[in-house]
Amino acid sequence: MTRIEFGVWDQMQTYETLHAATAAEVYETHIRQAQLMERAGFGYYWTLEHQGSYVGAVTSPQIFLTAVARHTESLRLGTMIWQLPFHHPVRLAQDVAMLDHLSGGRAEFGTGIGVHEHEFLRWGMDFYARQEMSEEALDIIEAAWRGDGSVTYEGKFWRIDEALVQPMPYQRPRPPIWAAVHSSRAIAFAARRGYHMAQNIDTDDSMERKFAEWRGAWKSHGHDGPMPRQFLMRVVHVAETDAKAHEQARQYLLEANTLGRELVAASRVGFGSHPRGMGSEDSEDIRERGRIFRECVRSYDFWIDNGLALVGSPETVARRVAEGRERIGYDHFAGKFHVGRMPHAMVESSIALFGKEVIPAFA
Q: Burial of 329 by CB count in 10 Å (0-12 exposed, 13-18 middle, 19+ buried)?
């Protein structure tokens, strides 16, 4: 196997900004923690985009990551994901290219379509067209980064007449492109395009099948070059002993997926046409993720037994990462260290301990 890469998936929760004196205080805390992550030996820093959601408070990832870039030196910086339908593709191509320059070539472009209907309704957008919109957007972004100087495109959703694109990315031919995938359609699309792939949420059993499905699809297209990277995000909490880590994490983990949900529930639009926010879409994969979220609210052991959270001493967590890598096949592991309302001091201790004792175990 190739050497494993370690990153942090920093989910800045909406409840933080709502309960702080200013959003600036929250941003500064997470920038300081990014510096800690860099010192601890992590190679990647990931944030995520949501619009009008309790899930995440970073509504303009390119601006936030540029601030992180100016306070770090080596961390590679990306969003997992930029929600493509919410951006004009030429504008996003230019923004990410500028981030790439301002970071000295450290930008990673994580892409996806979004999954919450209410976010689209609030912007007057067609939730059910998001896959097609995103595929067109990626065509345009790749064209913008090819270096021809202009982009002309005639599609169903985007019509562009000789857009003069500046700047070209610092990295050549372009920043790495990642696709966050859940459905078989998304897996097939990412494999066909040769993108790096990313996964979260599903149990280890599901992950094993989906990673294998993606590798099989990628190989079937006969791509040149090495296989793209494969990313898995898991909640992580590390303490000096297993008992201490579980004692600390237990009270925060059960609320991790629902904290601040009342922000959306109390609004007029709510979650849209379905209480889970999925609209009228239905599939085995969507039903399974619904089951996972329900069980995660009910049972701490469900998180642990299904690989959704890695909690324990450095030795235990390192073993769990190694076992998951062997079983699932990922070569990029991103830890989510912010767990519910866990105090920042506890989060930072976990990050530092992971860097000191877990990362070196894979050197």
A: middle
- pLDDT tier at 322, thresholds 50, 70, 90: very high
Inter-CA distances, 325 with 125, 245, 292, 329, 331, Å = 39, 22, 21, 5, 7
* Residue that the structure tokens 């909406």 belong to: 14
Question: pTM here?
Answer: 0.96
For tokens 């078989």, name the residue.
184
Question: Tokens in use for 168?
Answer: 């070209």
pLDDT band of residue 13 (cuts 50, 70, 90) is confident
Contacting residues for 210 by C-beta, under 8 A, at least 6 apart: 181, 182, 187, 199, 202
Ramachandran bin of 146, using left for φ above 0, alpha for ψ from -120 to 50, beta for the remaining angles: alpha
What CATH homologous superfamily does 5-362 map to? Luciferase-like domain (3.20.20.30)
Residue 1 has what pLDDT?
53
Q: What pLDDT digit, counting tens, does each position of 167-210 carry?
A: 999 999 999 999 999 899 999 999 999 999 999 989 999 999 99
pLDDT tens digits for 209-261?
A: 999 999 999 999 999 889 999 999 999 999 999 999 999 999 999 998 888 88
**Residue 217 in contact with residue 182, Cβ under 8 Å?**
no
Q: Where are the domains of the chain?
A: 5-362
Alpha-carbon distance 228 to 238, whole Å?
29
For residue 134, which of 173, 66, 84 has the smallest C-alpha distance?
Answer: 84
Exposed, middle or buried by CB within 10 Å (0-12, 13-18, 19+), for 67? Answer: middle
CA distance 290 to 293: 5
Instruction: Give the position of tokens 């066909």.
Output: 192
Residue 133 near residue 206, CB atoms below 8 Å = no
Q: Report how far apart the first and last C-alpha atoms of the chain are (Å, whole number).
A: 13
Residues 56, 60, 63: CA angle, nearest 5 degrees: 125
